[in-house]
Amino acid sequence: MTVPTGRRERKKAATRQKIADTALRLFLERGYDEVGIRDVAAEADVAVTTLFSHFASKEALVFERDDDFEQRLTRAVTDRAPDEPLVPALRREIHAMVLHCTADGSAPIYRMIDESRALREYEESMRLRHAESLATALVADPGLPQSATACRTLARFVIDAYALARDADAPQAAVDEIFQMVEAAWAAA
């Protein structure tokens, strides 16, 4: 995540983080369905309009790193060195994302997501959006000779690798196992 440089940007980032932290705390304490937007705004000491200027929906409060993850995935493609192979760059980013999402204290969050239909649906739509953004970056890369279909397929595999590994007993080993298959499929394309 990029660090805001100006005072105004730092204040906005701090407010956003305060809202997200407050929401997550309330959701875990009371249950996702038991907490409303007004509850979060009041507890965070912000107006509801301020909350919505930072988050588009109640579900977005749970997935507050969504935009950051999406940008990191596309930057793994666009910012890699000219001689750096694509799949290892994506593997490295998925490793980092899985590490973040399986850190101590994350289990209650994923239990909450699993127990909420709204959160599961939001997460699925988020993954599809991430896959489309990643596919767009792959297709735009002039150094990749694969077709648009192959790029879209790779993007879906990468996003699914994250979801599968996050839920595995040994998440980091799962990333490596999945990416062995991804690399073989990409080479065959």
Question: Characteristics of this structure?
Answer:
189 residues; mainly alpha; 0% strand; globular
What does this structure look like?
- The protein has 189 residues and is an all-alpha fold.
- 76% of the residues lie in helices and 0% in strands.
- The longest helix has 24 residues, at 7-30.
- The two termini are 33 Å apart.
Taking the alpha carbons of the first and last residues, their distance comes to 33 Å
> Which descriptor suits the 3D outline?
globular
Uncertain segments? none
Tell me roughly what share of residues is in helical segments: over 70%
Query: How would you characterize the largest beta sheet?
Result: none
Rg for CA atoms: 18 Å
N-to-C order of helices and strands: HHHHHHHHHH
**Per DSSP, what share of the residues sits in E-state strands of 2 or more residues?**
under 5%
Structural class: mainly alpha
Tally of strands: 0
Q: Quote the average pLDDT.
A: 91
Number of helices: 10
